[in-house]
Amino acid sequence: MLQVRNLHKSYQDQHVLRGVEFDIHQGQVKAVLGPSGSGKSTMLRLMALLEPANDGEILLRGQRLGVRQRGTTTVPLPERELAKERRDIGMVFQKFNLFPHLSACRNVMLGLTSVQNIPAKEAEERAMAMLERVGLSHRAGHYPSELSGGQQQRVAIARALVMNPSVLLFDEPTSALDPELVGEVLDVMEGLANDGMTMIVVTHEVRFARRVADQVTLFDSGVIVEQASPDEFFDNPQHQRTRKFLSHVH
Ligand SMILES: Nc1ncnc2c1ncn2[C@@H]1O[C@H](COP(=O)(O)OP(=O)(O)O)[C@@H](O)[C@H]1O
Ligand SMILES: [Mg+2]
């Protein structure tokens, strides 16, 4: 369903992504592990169309994202068109990024009312259904400051889900949480995976990766080093780099 081909990204003279390639099928969960600074967040930002790539392609159901073909050249999409494509790709950040002056329900509704022009009543119903799905319908009227970090992240997941994306990208969704709050967020994510959501999860949660992911990837210095099923990846890694990485996280 989603294909990434030869993706490159540089900042000034730093070549951060150096030819990233992978496929993910509908309903699959891909866990991405890798050291800090290896380009994992950059890859997700490119996939979420928050920044343009320098080279390479991202295809969703065979359709190239972020660009339009004009004759023999490809040109970046204008912002309006980009915004439309972005709706199909949900993103959950390490730091939640909720609006502090809006209740949980209003945070979840906002994309529907302001981006999709959906009437408030329908948006509220859909937002409430998503809060229910992440186990927070009883906190709908609370502001972010009145919620725990785990609850805030679950609101952020509901906010991404309500747009009905084809794929959900997670950038270290539990890294900013106190240890005792990590489980409730991972449980929600596992539930989504079981419901068939297509997900790419950058994480340090090795146990989650092993239990929930269909493929596990080691990312290092802007390239994919190893990509395999969880059993293969953890029990029989093919690359020395993977063995070294795993020796630090186990
Ligand atoms: N907007 C940016 N401008 C300049 N350098 C950046 C920018 N975003 C990321 N980088 C650099 O790209 C490298 C990879 O960053 P990042 O994708 O955040 O890695 P990871 O998520 O794996 O820790 C880092 O060296 C970082 O400093
Ligand atoms: Mg990162």
From TrEMBL:
Residues 2-246 form the ABC transporter domain. It is a peripheral membrane protein. It holds the Pfam family ABC_tran. One of its GO terms (cellular component) is plasma membrane. Keywords: Amino-acid transport, ATP-binding, Cell membrane, Membrane, Nucleotide-binding, Transport. CDD domains: ABC_HisP_GlnQ. SMART domains: AAA (SM00382). GO terms for molecular function: ABC-type amino acid transporter activity; ATP binding; ATP hydrolysis activity. It is found in: Cell membrane. Its main location: membrane. Belongs to the ABC transporter superfamily. This is Amino acid ABC transporter ATP-binding protein. It comes from Arthrobacter cavernae.
